[in-house]
Design brief:
By secondary structure, the chain is mostly helical. It is about 85% helix and about 0% strand.
C-alpha cells in the first residue's frame, strides 16, 4: 500500500476532516447565508448566518466522522464546500456589478 493511501485511509485524517474541514465548510455556509438572507439590514443578516453556525458545524462534524475513511470524509466536506464557495463568488460578482 502506498504512503498516500495510508494517509487518506487513516482515522487521524478523518478526524482532521471532521474538525478542520467542517469548520471551514461551516464558515463558508455562514457567509453564504449572510449574503443571501433577504430580510432586514446587515446586522440582521449577520445574526441569521451566525444562528446556523453551530447546527452546520455539528452536522458536518458528525457526517465526516461517520465516513468510512479519511478520503470519504474530505469528499463529504468538499460536496458541501464547493457549491457554497460558488454561491459566495457569484454573489460577490453580482454585488460588485450593481455598485
Amino acid at each position: 500500500m502506498s504512503l498516500i493511501n495510508r494517509i487518506f485511509e487513516n482515522n487521524i485524517n478523518k478526524n482532521i476532516a471532521a474538525t478542520l474541514g467542517a469548520f471551514i465548510t461551516t464558515i463558508s455556509l455562514t457567509v453564504c447565508i449572510t449574503l443571501l438572507w433577504p430580510f432586514g439590514d446587515v446586522v440582521e443578516q449577520i445574526f441569521a448566518g451566525a444562528t446556523f453556525f453551530f447546527v452546520f458545524w455539528a452536522s458536518l462534524f458528525y457526517w465526516a466522522i461517520l465516513a468510512e475513511n479519511g478520503a470519504w470524509a474530505w469528499i463529504r466536506m468538499l460536496i458541501i464546500l464547493l457549491p457554497a464557495l460558488a454561491v459566495i463568488t457569484i454573489s460577490f460578482l453580482l454585488k460588485s456589478q450593481t455598485q
